[in-house]
Structures are given as structure tokens and as C-alpha cells.
Amino acid sequence: MNQQIIAFIGGGNMAKAMVGGLCKNGFNAQHILVIEPNESNRQSLASEFGVQVFDKANSVLQSANLVIWAVKPQVFKEAAELTLPYLAQPLHLSIAAGITLSTMASSLQSQQLIRAMPNTPALIGLGMTGLVALSSVTEAQKQWISEIVATLGQSIWVAQENLIDAVTAVSGSGPAYVFLFAQSMIEAGEKLGLTADQAKQLTLATLQGATELALRSTANLQELRQQVTSKGGTTYAAITTMQAEKMPEAIHQGVNAAYLRAKELGQELA
Ligand SMILES: NC(=O)c1ccc[n+]([C@@H]2O[C@H](COP(=O)([O-])OP(=O)(O)OC[C@H]3O[C@@H](n4cnc5c(N)ncnc54)[C@H](OP(=O)(O)O)[C@@H]3O)[C@@H](O)[C@H]2O)c1
To answer: What is the rounded CA–CA span in Å between residue 199 and residue 150?
Structure first.
């Protein structure tokens, strides 16, 4: 793996998180090339990690075995046009939201394509990424990409591309659902007389602890909930009220709206 050359097109937040993770895991920084127009981004990548940075695509890219597309979706096609003349026949990994495999294939004139959908906790190495590959990508290549994407946190492979829209709806947009839920709990706590800081600490520690408990426990989520919900008790009062207010249905509808919008965006960016 350390002999491979990885080129990033776009050296912003996500690229920086991946470069940082690769270097931390012993990947040779001199084997990482980053094309990034923004000078302060280039300087920070070069000084923090010692990677090779360039303001625009050039012939150095010919050596790249893997090209990681980490530009905003709106500039993907333009970046592809500027970069393509310099590429040999690398494997491509795109993390640009809404850029489909078919858009990648026509812009990059390649079938060596993998599409990924990370989420924002990736920026601190606690992300969740969904991945899909064209059938021409080998298992060994997929394994290599899994290792690279592990720099952002956990990942799963899905069998069909339309499931990337489901990944977008669940984990891609998911952090914002959690933030909304947490904000509502904090506001409710404040209404009951807690300070903002107290309500925030109680809420975020509860989310963290409950998530960790769910991950470590052999019981499923419903069992875990039932264990703390005795009939006539406080949790029972809360859960029955939330269900009567149709909280589960609202979440299903919200996730579905994100799924439909992800599909639309894929078409708009095609
Ligand atoms: N951030 C997340 O949590 C997250 C989650 C899921 C998916 N993604 C996807 O990840 C991708 C990158 O996101 P990000 O947050 O890292 O964005 P970002 O910080 O804006 O980074 C993108 C970088 O690409 C540069 N760029 C623009 N045109 C270029 C070109 N032709 N060639 C090379 N570089 C070019 C931009 O420079 P200028 O600013 O000078 O234009 C910018 O520094 C996006 O497609 C996004 O959809 C991000």
C-alpha cells in the first residue's frame, strides 16, 4: 500500500481528514499529491503533513494509482475536465455528494469507479461512510479503499447504487437529526429550570452513553428501551406521549424526504 500514489483533487476539509488519517497510519506523505487552488489550504496540508501540493492539475498526476475526488459536487465536472488529460488509468474514488457512478463514468471515461458517502463526524475520525463500486472494481481494490476510508471512521459496502441514497438519508444527513433531537431535549430541560450548560451536558452525555450501551449490549433497541420503561413510570409517560405525538412517523417521513431529495440531486448534478 505504501508504494501506491494517491492524488486528491480538492484539498478542503474532507481531504484534510483523509490525508491526516493516512499519514497517522504510516502512509508515506511524499506519495500523496493534492491539487488544491486555495493557497492557505495548500500551505496547511504541506506544513502539517509534508504531502506534495499543487495549485492545479499537471503531469505529476500520471503517477497516481488512486484519485480521490474531494471537491464540491458543483465543481466536480469542471475539475474532472481539467484533470483528465493528466491521468493514466487510476482507480477513482469520489466522496462528492450526489455525483453518481454514471456521471463519474462519463466525466472520467473510466469504469474503475467507487462512490462514497461519508458524514460530518468523519472530520474527527468518527464518521460513517457508505460505499458502492462498479462491478469492474476488484475485491482487492475494494479492500484497499476500505482501508483508506477507515481514516474517516467506519464504513459499509452496499450492493446497488440506489442504496447510496438510503445511506445519505440515514447516516449522511443523520448527524443533523441527532442535533435537532439533542437541541429539543436541551430546550425541554431548560424549561424545567436547568441551566443551558446543565441541560446540554445531561443531554449529550445521555446520547453518548445510550449509544455506547446499545453498541455493547446484546439486547436489541426495543429490549433496551423496555428495560427502562416500567408501566406507570416516568419513561413510560415520556415514550407514550412521544408516540402519541407521532415522533416515529415524523422521523420515517424525514428520512424518506432526504432519500427522495438525494435522488433528485443525483439527477440535477448529472
Ligand atoms: N464535509 C463533510 O462532512 C462531507 C460529508 C459528506 C460528503 N462530503 C463531500 O465531500 C466533498 C468535499 O467536501 P469538503 O467539506 O471537504 O469541501 P471543501 O472544504 O470546500 O473542499 C473542497 C476543496 O476543493 C477545492 N477546489 C475547487 N475547485 C477545484 C478544482 N478544480 N480542483 C481541485 N480542487 C478544487 C476548493 O477550493 P476553493 O474553496 O478555493 O474553491 C476546496 O478547497 C464534497 O463533495 C462534499 O459533498 C463532505
So the answer is: 33
Please report, rounded to a whole number, the percentage of residues in the chain having pLDDT higher than 70: 99
- Kindly report, residue by residue over 71-97, the tens digit of the pLDDT: 999 999 999 999 999 999 999 999 999
3-state secondary structure of 118: coil
Q: Is the pTM of this model over 0.85?
A: yes
| Cβ of 70 below 6 Å from ligand 1 | yes
Task: Decide whether any atom of ligand 1 lies within 6 Å of the 74 Cβ.
Answer: no
| Grid cell locating 138 | 476488484
Is residue 201 classed exposed, middle or buried when 0-12, 13-18 and 19+ CB atoms within 10 A define those classes?
middle
Phi, psi at residue 43, to the nearest 5°?
Answer: -60, -45
What structural domains does the chain harbor?
Answer: 6-162 (3.40.50.720), 174-265 (1.10.3730.10)
Residue 202 to residue 260: CA distance in whole angstroms: 34
Cβ pair 119, 127 in contact under 8 A = yes
Residue whose CA is at the smallest distance from ligand 1 atom 9: 96
- Helix count and strand count (H, E) for the chain: 11, 8
Amino acid at 166: A
Report the share of the chain in percent with pLDDT over 90.
Answer: 98
pLDDT tops 80 at residue 1: no
Work out the widest C-alpha separation in the chain, in whole angstroms. 71
